[in-house]
Each structure stands twice: as C-alpha cells, then as structure tokens.
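Appendix B, example 12.
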Amino acid sequence: MLRNCPRLVALVLDDCIDLTDACFVEGIAKHPNLSGMKELSLARCCEVTDVGLLAALGESEGRMSGTTAPSLRSLKTLNITCVPLLTERALLAVAKVCTHLEELKAADSDAVTDVSLLEIANRCRGLTGLDVSECMMLTDKGLIEFQHIRMRMWELAAGVGHLTSLKLNRSPLEAVTDKTIMALLPLPPKHKRQGRGAPLEMRNLELSFARNITPVSFAHVATSRPSQLHSLDLSNISLVHPDAVQGLADLIKAQPLLNRLMLAGSPSLVTDATCECISQSLPNLLSLDMSECGQVTDAGVAAIARGCPSLEEVNLKGCTQLTDITVKAFVHNGLNIHASFTATTSSKLRSINLGLITNLTDASLHDLSHLFARRNTAKMHTLKLSGCLNITDAGLAHICDAIAVSTHPSTTTTTTFQPKPDPLRLLCLS
C-alpha cells in the first residue's frame, strides 16, 4: 500500500493493534514522501514502540552520525493516544524533529511527562491543539511551566501559535487545579502592545473529572476567554461549593458561541437554574449531555427545548425526575400536526438518550414518531431507551409506523431527485 501511494500526506492507522515496528522501519521510514507527510495517527497501536517511531523520525540508533535521513519534519498532526509502549524518549524525538507540529493528541500516554511536554513547548512554536488527557505522569508544575514558556515566546516572536484546543480529561487530580487553569488560560495583556504571536483564543476546553477546581476556575475562563469557546466539557465534576451553580451560570453566559456542552455526571452543578441559563444564553447549541444529573426536572429541560432550537443531540440518561413532558417539549418545538404522521416540525433533533428515565410512557414514543416521519429532511437516527420500564410494544409500533410512512415513495409526481431517507441507525432497548 505504501509503495503504491508515493504522494501520501496523511496516514491514519488507528486501532491497527497488530501493527509492529517493522511497518515503520521497512515501510513508513522509507516512504518517498516521508518529509512531506502532514498527519500521522497511531491511536491504540498497542505494539508500536520507540524503535518504530524513531525510525520514522529519522532518529534511529543505526543512523550514522552527521548524516541526514528522511524524516517527518513537516508533520503538523500527530496522534499517539493510548500507544502504551512509547516512552518519554519518543516524544523528545518528536519535539526535536517535528518543529512544525500544530496538534498533538497524546491521551493516556506515558510518553507525556513534564520533561517531554516542556521540550514540546520550546520547539513546537506553532502548537495550537493539545490533548494530554489521562497522562498520569504530568504534574501541575509541568503544565504551568509549559504555558510560561509559550507565553514568553508568544510575547517576543512572530509565528508563535497559542492553544485553541486543550484537553485535560481524567488528568491526575493534583495536576488540574485553579492555579493550573489560570496559568494555561492567561489574561490578555492589559497594555496596548500585544504579543507578536497569534491572538489568545480558545475554542475547545475539556476538563472532565477535574475535581480539584473551584468556581474560581469558572470565573477565570469566563473573564479570560469571553465569547470564544465552541465546545466545553465539565463532565463528572463533583463540585460542592455554595457558588458552584452560579459560577457555572456565569461561565455559560460568557460563552454564547457554544455549540457543544458536556455536563454529564455533575449533579451538584446542573439544576433547573442551570437549564434556564443554557436556554437563555446558548441559541446555537447543537449537542448537550446532561446525563446522570438527577436534580433537573421537566421545567428546566423544557426551557432548553424552547431556547435551543438547533439542538441535534441530547443525552438525558439517568435524569430520573423527567417525564413525558420533556419529550413533548423537544418534539413540539414548532410542531404543526396536520394528520397522523404528516407533521412538520422545526425541531432538528436527531439523537436522544432517555435511558433509565422510568417515568416515560408510550406517549413519549408517540411524540418522537413525528421526528422519524419527517420527509426530505434529516430524521432521527438514534434513540436510546435502556431501562425505560414503562415502554411497551404499542409505543414502539408508533416509531415503526412512522419510519414506514417516511420511507414510502412519494405519490407526488416530480422530476427532482429525492435522496434516500436516512435509516434508523441505533435503537437501544436493553
């Protein structure tokens, strides 16, 4: 394959669990366009070691001193997520060779240490995306110094990028603190002279399981990066603090561009007041995960249905206080029912998880059937009802009938090509 693709610029080998170092030594390292390669993804390639990656980097032990070997020197994106046999040595070589690197995905990797991360900071000046989730060798000192190095370069040198995407999910508890967040997201300079690098912007921030932060972090993100975030993950943050709910509300209000919000497993943060804030502040929201947030009620979620008309994906699994009222609110967002299964609705919902909401009845499936009956538009493709004990065959029949009607050829004579309707991709009833 490599021999027959001489102009290859991107190589994605994710989940090739049988891939070994031989592929790198005998194949990738000898590829004619190795120096022009822009992307290499090795996520979950469990047999790859330092030997293979060093060969592709032109840093193998067998190379004669003083000689220049083909290498991945033009690489801009590298994904080494969950490649367990890579060590710090491999990432140090990446920093040395791949100085044009813009995105590093290294979640769940022992190759990421304070030492290797600081080397990346010093050499990869254009880095804008960093995923070091579940990197258990990292400390707060390493993360803070990483940003100090980059800020010094940003203030002095042109062409220095700034992080626009940062993922610290499931990081060591002591590594992600208020102090760390404040360092990684510095306030813009107050003086008129800005840094010579790219503007301080943050589009994607993921901090799930960051259980050592307080509302101070929320306030800092709101202040330092107002109207910037497009995606925010604060899942599984068990924050017990009197100002926690208000702090999250203030953060949400400061980020009107958010289209993806993950708050799963954070019941102490997510209340009906939080839902009301989401409704009033995030009109462009596309994806919302509030699973396992047991404090929310129909009143709060119905407010989201009214205020976030662009929602396509909603996860409410384990929100046990909800009832059929919630489903009706999402479906009947602009619904105009003319006759059975001939409804038109402005609802854009395509995926919903209602698992473990035992209050739901067949009435919810009757309402949801309207989203499967839509013609010539995107339909529902995912419906999860695990543990919904009051759902019966009669309720599922509503869904089946709606799908049958929507996929039946139209009787209207037209010469316009009609695309095949999207089928139901996932129905979970376990």
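Residues 102 and 127 are 4 Å apart (CA to CA). Confidence is low (pLDDT under 50) at residues 334-343.
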